UniProtKB/TrEMBL annotation:
Keyword RNA-binding attributed: no
Signal peptide: none
Keyword Oxidoreductase: yes
Organism: Colletotrichum godetiae
Keywords, sorted A to Z: NADP, Oxidoreductase
GO molecular function per UniProt: oxidoreductase activity
Database matches in InterPro entries: NAD(P)-bd_dom_sf, SDR_fam
Family statement: Belongs to the short-chain dehydrogenases/reductases (SDR) family.
Organism superkingdom: Eukaryota
Pfam families, A to Z: adh_short
PANTHER family xref list: RETINOL DEHYDROGENASE, SHORT-CHAIN DEHYDROGENASE-RELATED
Protein's recorded name: Short-chain dehydrogenase
SUPFAM superfamilies given in the database record: NAD(P)-binding Rossmann-fold domains (SSF51735)
Length: 327
């Protein structure tokens, strides 16, 4: 465990960066939370490589500012930057945003679930009444993926489309630190995750949920050649820590890297040729390497000895039930 943690806390320099990214012309990306932090850095890298990027967030003003910043940095790019207004903490905003996207694009090559929230004020809820972190970091991305599933599959079927080039990236965290045993505390009576009452623990439950969703989605789209991975972007300074206690923010400011490093982790998952179809379901660690999921969490991705559902499948089914009213 110690070696695994040290390997993620002090990773080697990134090997896959903007310097060796191939041209992304004609490829279409959706990046949630792309107006700031890691997402903004990822958008900068992809736009410089001529990609078409939909920056998905709830603030049109922030998207406009991000687009202006990116275009100023890369005036010679042949890429495109487009807004996609949605709020992952409000499920009813997701389908309209997807319908808007589908009227504009016939393909979707990569979906990156970068947006998230961490340690909000106690008792914070989504518009539908779910705990804010699990709702924003897991339920919202699940619904967005479900709504975009057919377009992802259609893109993977395009003539001459390389197998494994269509991808979904689920941003998790360093789950070996802070996650409860097993990753998610499950309430069998309710068939739902059980809140611990501790903000960081519930944050980690949601992030383990992302790993479960990445693994479950990988199984469902294996035949299509779509790759689904989860990513620990690394310890980086972003707006995500804005709700953390002051002392913790000071420590983070000293120890954490700039957001571009986290973007390299996500870039590896989204675009690296090393992430082959056989690697679908993998857990990516900083700054773009294959990592190992802790044993107790990996165990939750396996069916029980008597054939009962895995914890990961239970979490997937819970997400499906909670989002059925927002098809």
């Amino acid at each position: 465990m110690l070696n695994r943690n040290m390997n993620q806390l002090f990773p080697p320099k990134p090997a896959f960066t903007d310097q060796n990214l191939s041209d992304q012309a004609e490829r279409v990306f959706i990046i949630t939370g792309g107006a700031s932090g890691i997402g903004l850095e990822l958008c900068k890298i992809l736009y410089a490589a001529n990609a078409t990027i939909y920056i998905a967030t709830r603030s049109s003003e922030k998207i406009a500012t991000a687009i202006k910043t990116i275009k100023t940095l890369h005036p010679s790019s042949n890429g495109q930057l487009e807004p996609l207004i949605l709020d992952l903490a409000d499920l009813k905003t997701i389908k309209p945003a997807v319908e808007n996207f589908l009227t504009k694009e016939t393909r979707l090559d990569v979906l990156v679930h970068n947006a998230g929230v961490m340690m909000p004020p106690q008792g914070s809820k989504t518009a539908q009444g779910h705990e804010l972190q699990i709702g924003t970091n897991a339920l919202g991305p699940y619904l967005l993926t479900r709504c975009l599933g057919e377009r992802l599959q259609a893109t993977a079927r395009l003539e001459a489309m390389p197998r494994g080039s269509v991808r979904v990236v689920w941003v998790a965290s360093m789950i070996s630190l802070g996650a409860p045993k097993g990753g998610v505390i499950w309430d069998d009576a309710k068939g739902a995750p059980k809140l611990s009452g501790d903000s960081m623990s519930d944050y980690m439950q949601g992030k383990v949920g992302c790993i479960f969703l990445a693994d479950e989605f990988a199984r469902r789209v294996e035949a299509d050649g779509i790759i689904s991975t989860s990513v620990n972007p690394g310890l980086v300074k972003t707006e995500l820590q804005r709700h953390a206690p002051a002392a913790m923010r000071v420590l983070m400011g000293v120890v954490f890297k700039g957001p571009k490093y986290g973007a390299y982790s996500e870039l590896f998952a989204a675009c690296s040729p090393d992430v082959s179809a056989e690697k679908s379901g993998s857990y990516i660690i900083p700054w773009g390497r294959f990592g190992c999921i802790p044993e107790d969490i990996a165990e939750g991705m396996k069916p029980g000895s008597s054939g009962e559902k895995s914890l990961g499948k239970k979490f997937w089914d819970w997400c499906e039930r909670e989002t059925l009213s927002y098809p």
